[in-house]
Structures are given as structure tokens and as C-alpha cells.
Design a protein that fits this description.
elongated, 23 helices, 531 residues, mainly alpha, two-stranded antiparallel ribbon, disordered C terminus, two-stranded antiparallel sheet
């Protein structure tokens, strides 16, 4: 029975891991189908969606996860959290390193006292709650496991996956096989890669030192679920009468939640992620998962449970005390008039968007033209790694609204295609002193050709077609800026802090056609005509 429970957990975790890899790194059709339901099952996005927009679906998911934790412990952490699955995979690989394995066998995983980790995790949760009450969800977004896994997959996994596919495609082309097309992906910003890489290094260090230490000391979702798991009737228990004190369960525990005591081993249910390793390691069957056994089990002292409740109450008080100061952390009204990054369709208001986005990068992965890129400090520190439109990498395709359909937190509201095509993300501005038509008298028309709403059109001036703009019809898609062959760009999109509604497409004599694929070649001044 013990081995069956462990095997079932491992099998479920592998299935979950494959699903989330397919979500962020899989082909478009598979990823879109998974995006329709899989992110919504995650506790972090569901909690965020429930707290920020009052989503009924998010509330139901939170209730379901909480109910499972109250009944059976941290089963969600055991097999359904993608970052937890990644930590288990890293642990499996790191233990293949012989020196590290010998160190772990000599010292054991359970060398980190449960009491010290308890105060660390509640301190992190209190800090997260306090910053959230002040209006900044940055700390929650950086620590929340689903968003962290998404950033790792997009910023580090996607370039590796794309390079591998390009290599395989090039190899097959030598044998005249062109069935596999190599994917194209814009490289993430250096800061995004650096932050994500540092997170992976830190995560690997915690795994090497003590298994699931991130889940038991840092993760705010895990801390909340651990509080609920304290009184779960189904949990890992130690039969004091059958325990021989051999310590095998302590050495095998990947969450360092078992401590040896004078009366036998003691399990901290708040930190136990139900890996079931201890069940398989125990030679006498003293460690069990289930209801209370006939012999009185050794459980955490009552004072520990009281300290957990006091720490939870302190976190709530910190958040409540900080809430009146929230107005001091808001965006400076004078800054709203300053041009900033163009936020994605469906964001509506830039301030609303940055306060609800966890930077999971799912919309970045779904964007077919790679115009969505991770911000550095364009939104400010609170918007670190949140998506923005970068017209250096692409443009917002006129007939696409995929990013609005995949957002799991409600930061991007779903838009139908007709509504999206009238949403004004920004307004175009033409700099005639940079335009080669006005400066040199040379024919161009790149911006006119690609504008889907005819907001950029041409008129005849002594036989020369000169570009002009109709700002009211501009939707800020950036196709004109992306296509402009000069540098600095002669035509640019200036962001709107609050998205508006564009006028109907401008009626002109010279028709323009929407651009549905990026132009071949570069867009710099030395790359020639862009299409």
C-alpha cells in the first residue's frame, strides 16, 4: 500500500509536468487547448483572480484546493503544482551527482530545524501580504509557483526548445525533408533572462540543500495551504509504538518536515508536501498516511499550532495596517501623461493591468508575432517582467486576440475579435523630419501598405505619394512602426494609459492591406525595403 501511494503520486506528477510543459513549450494547437482550462486550475492565479476581480470561477478553485488541503493535507503541492514537479525533477538529477548524494546521505535532508523554517515562512507571507496591501503584488508575483514556472519555461526553456527544433529542422532539410519548420522566437530581454536564471539557481540550491525547502519556507501559496493542513484528518502519521528511531524517514523526507524526538519521529503537517518517500523508506511500517492509528501518534506540540495561528493572524494584521497607506504607493497622476509602454489588448487601464498581472508569460508564449515581450522597468519596479508591446520585435496582428483568451488572472480581459479591432492601444505619430519621403523625396509607402485601419494613408503631392495620419482611426497595433525602414523610426505609436475606442477605419482612395506576417528581412535603415 505504501509503495502504491508513492507510485500514484509520482505518476500524477509526471502527467502534470508534461501538461505544463506542453502549455508553455508545446505546438500552438496543443498549447491553446491546454490554455483554455489548465491555468485556471492553479491555486495562485485563482486566488489572485478572486481577490482582485471577485471571479466566481477563481473562488470555486480556491475553495476546492482549500477543501482538499483541509481533508487530506498538501495534496495540491504533492502532485498538481508545476514548480513542485520541477523541484522533484531537479532533485532527481542533482542526486545523480555522487558528491552531493554522499553529503545528503551523511547529513540527511532533515538538517534544517522545523521551528526556524516556520518563522521564515510566516515572515515571508507577512511581507508579501503587507506589500500587496500597499498596492504592489510584485513579491507575490515573483514567488507564486505557477508564475515562476511560466517565466522559467518562457525565458529559459523556449530559447533552448527553439534551438533544438532549428537543429533538427536543419538536419532533416539535408535529406529533403521539410515537414518540420523551425520556430522563430524573439530573445527575451537580458534582465528578464538574468532574473529568471538567478531564480533557477536559487531554486536549485534549495533543492540541493534540502529538497522542497522552497515549498516549505518561501512559497506564499504553500504557507497558506500548510496552515489548512494542520488539522487534516488524512495526513502522514508516525505510530510511536512501531517506530524504532532508525531515522530513515528523516533522511528521505524531501520537505524536511520530520524530526527525531525522544518518543519517536514527529511530523510537521504544515510543511509536509506528501511526497510519500517516508512511507516507502520505513522498514517497520510505522509511518502511514491516513486517519489516526490506534496507538497515540506523536504530533506537533499544541504550542506550535498556536504559534502558527498567531503568525497567520499577524500576517492579516500587517496587511490590514498597511492598507491605509496604499494611496501613497499609487502611480503619480503626473506620470500618467508621460508616454510609457504600450500595454496588451484587454488590459484596459495600465494601472489596473499592472496591479493584476503575475507575469506568468502565458500571453507572451501565445503571441504569434512576438510583439509581447517582458518589461524591465518600463512599468516601474512593480511591473517587472510584465508583458508589453515591443514593436522592435513585431506588431499586434489585426486578426488575433489570443493573448486576451489565455490570461489566467483577469489582468487581460477577454475581447472578441470585433471589439479588439476597435480597441485603441495608442495613437500613431508621424515625424516628417525623419521620413525619407519628406526628407529625400524618395518613394516608400511601407507604413501605408501595412496599416489595417487606413489610419496611415497617402496623398499625392506633385506626383509623390506622401504619408499622412488619421489618429482617430489608429488602434496602436504598431504595424507601421515595425515596417518603417529608417532609424530612428519616422512613425511611432505613443501609448495610451487608458485604452480607448478607435473610430471606424479611415476611408481613403488608396486601399491598404493588413499585414498578417512579419516582413522579410530587417527593419533597420541598412536592410533595404522591408517587404
Amino acid at each position: 500500500m505504501r509503495h502504491r501511494l508513492q507510485a500514484a503520486r509520482i505518476a500524477t506528477a509526471w502527467v502534470v509536468g508534461v501538461l505544463f510543459v506542453g502549455l508553455f513549450l508545446g505546438p500552438g494547437v496543443l498549447a491553446d487547448r491546454l490554455a483554455a482550462w489548465l491555468p485556471g486550475t492553479q491555486a495562485g492565479p485563482a486566488l489572485f483572480r478572486f481577490l482582485t476581480v471577485g471571479s466566481l470561477a477563481g473562488g470555486l478553485v480556491v475553495t476546492a484546493v482549500a477543501g482538499v488541503s483541509l481533508l487530506g493535507g498538501r495534496l495540491y503541492c504533492a502532485a498538481w503544482c508545476p514548480l513542485g514537479v520541477l523541484q522533484d525533477t531537479l532533485g532527481f538529477l542533482l542526486l545523480r551527482v555522487r558528491p552531493l548524494r554522499r553529503w545528503r546521505e551523511r547529513r540527511g535532508v532533515g538538517v534544517f530545524p522545523v521551528g526556524r523554517r516556520r518563522w521564515v515562512r510566516w515572515g515571508v507571507l507577512g511581507l508579501t501580504a503587507g506589500t500587496a496591501a500597499l498596492g504592489s503584488w510584485l513579491l507575490f508575483a515573483l514567488l507564486e509557483p505557477y508564475g515562476a514556472f511560466g517565466r522559467l519555461a518562457v525565458h529559459l526553456g523556449s530559447p533552448v526548445s527553439a534551438a533544438f527544433c532549428r537543429g533538427v529542422s536543419s538536419l532533416l532539410e539535408r535529406f529533403d525533408v521539410f515537414a518540420l519548420s523551425a520556430p522563430t522566437a524573439a530573445p527575451p530581454a537580458a534582465l528578464a533572462t538574468t532574473v529568471t536564471g538567478a531564480f533557477l539557481v536559487g531554486l536549485g540550491a534549495l533543492v540541493a540543500a534540502g529538497g522542497r525547502l522552497y515549498c516549505t519556507t518561501v512559497c506564499p501559496v504553500g504557507t497558506c495551504l500548510g496552515l489548512l493542513a494542520q488539522t487534516a484528518p488524512l495526513r502522514v502519521r508516525v505510530d510511536a509504538g512501531a517506530c524504532t528511531g532508525c531515522g530513515l524517514c528523516v533522511r528521505r523526507c524531501r520537505s524536511s518536515c520530520i524530526e527525531k524526538g525522544p518518543g519517536g519521529a514527529r511530523v510537521d503537517p504544515a510543511a509536509c508536501v506528501l511526497c510519500m518517500d517516508c512511507l516507502a523508506a520505513c522498514p517497520t511500517g510505522a509511518v502511514r498516511y491516513g486517519l489516526a492509528v490506534s496507538a497515540p501518534p506523536v504530533v506537533p506540540r499544541a504550542s506550535s499550532a498556536r504559534r502558527e495561528l498567531l503568525a497567520a493572524g499577524a500576517s492579516v494584521l500587517v496587511a490590514a495596517a498597511a492598507r491605509p497607506l496604499r494611496g501613497l504607493s499609487g502611480e503619480d497622476p503626473r506620470a500618467r501623461a508621460v508616454a510609457g509602454p504600450v500595454s496588451p489588448p484587454g488590459s484596459g487601464d495600465r494601472e489596473r493591468f499592472t496591479s493584476r498581472c503575475t507575469a506568468c508569460q502565458l500571453c507572451v508564449r501565445a503571441c504569434p508575432t512576438h510583439v509581447l515581450q517582458s518589461a524591465t522597468f518600463e512599468y516601474g519596479l512593480g511591473g517587472l517582467l510584465q508583458p508589453r508591446l515591443s514593436f522592435r520585435h513585431g506588431f499586434c496582428e489585426y486578426d488575433c486576440q489570443r493573448c486576451t483568451a489565455v490570461c489566467p488572472t483577469g489582468a487581460l480581459l477577454p475581447l472578441d475579435l470585433g471589439e479588439k479591432q476597435r480597441t485603441q492601444l495608442g495613437v500613431v505619430r508621424l515625424y516628417k523630419d525623419r521620413c525619407i519621403v519628406y526628407c529625400r523625396g524618395e518613394e516608400c509607402g511601407a507604413c501605408v501598405e501595412v496599416c489595417p485601419t487606413h489610419a496611415v494613408y497617402s496623398h499625392d503631392v506633385e506626383g509623390l505619394l506622401c504619408p499622412e495620419i488619421a489618429p482617430g482611426s489608429c488602434i496602436g497595433c504598431g504595424a507601421c512602426e515595425f515596417a518603417c525602414p529608417v532609424g530612428p523610426k519616422a512613425i511611432e505609436v505613443h501609448a495610451s494609459t487608458v485604452h480607448g475606442r478607435a473610430a471606424p477605419p479611415h476611408a481613403v482612395d488608396t486601399p491598404a492591406r493588413p499585414m498578417t506576417t512579419p516582413p522579410a528581412g530587417g527593419t533597420s535603415s541598412d536592410s533595404g525595403f522591408p517587404f
